[in-house]
Every structure is written in C-alpha cells, then in structure tokens.
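I have been asked to look over a protein record a colleague put together. The record follows directly below this note.
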Amino acid sequence: MTKETVPVNHKIFTALLLTSGLALAGCATKPKELPPQPSGAATTTTTTPPVSQPMGPVPGTQADFVASVLGDTILFDTDRYNIDSEDQGLLQSQAQWLARYPGKRVSIEGHCDERGTRDYNLALGERRANAAKNYLVSLGIDASRITTISYGKERPVALGSDESSWARNRRAITITVQ
C-alpha cells in the first residue's frame, strides 16, 4: 500500500459516510399539515378539565376516619372498662362515620398499662374493646362489622412507669379494616 492510497481511501470513506448520513436525514418524516378549514365551518375543540388532586384524606379511609370523628381512642381509668360520657360522644361520632360508610368494617383494640399480669391485662383489654363495640352496636352499627382484639400490655404507646404513661396506655382504639 502506498502513501497516496491511504488518504484517497480515507477521503472516499469519509465522503461515503457523510452522504449516507445526509440520505438518512432526508428520509426523516416531516409533520403533515392539515388543509385549512373551509370557510363557514365551525371548529370544535374539546379540552378536558385539569384533574384536581383531592384536598385531604380519601373518603372512607383510616385517615378520613381519624379526620372526621372526635377521636379514634377512648381512655379508661385503672382496672375499669366502663364507657363514660366523654367516651360516649366520641363513639357517637364514630357511629355516624360508620353509618356514612356501611361497607366499612372496624376493629377495636383493647390495651392496658404495664401493671398486672399478662393474663389479667389481656382479659381487661378484651373487656375494654367489647365495651366500645357494645356501645357502637347500641347506636345501630351492625355487630358483624366490628371485631375486637386485646393486646393487654403488649403494645404501649407511652413508655414509662408513671401515672401519665399508664393513663395513655389504658385505651381502646378503633381502626378501619376495609
């Protein structure tokens, strides 16, 4: 191979590459323009309104439940499971929410403070959950929509061995299931 053939071959290759690129660029599709509308024809354009995001919790969810009722938690005195007048108002607001969403089910969790034996606290937590359930049923909520469970002292919300921690742990919580 001579020195003269290398630049010629290189020039031919470069020219071939450039013409191939130009040929492919010429094959690109161009947007088609529509003919103008005939005079006197009405033009209609349909626009979809923008989708707005909901402001707040989705109706029927646990977040909606918590936002709509007076509270999801009722508190109890030591070794008690009675529903007092404050708890009655809270449970009435829960019953109103449940009446709005007849397909929703709830679970009521009974809890206790750390004092007492495991067995005693499981039984007391069950009585607390059932007391809340029975009150909701007395307000017209179908019992089949409400399940209960007792966690006793196993799931405290307040860690500590003082009266304020114990008071926060003696509770029944209503949670939406579906």
User: Anything to note?
Assistant: DSSP finds five helices and four strands in the chain.
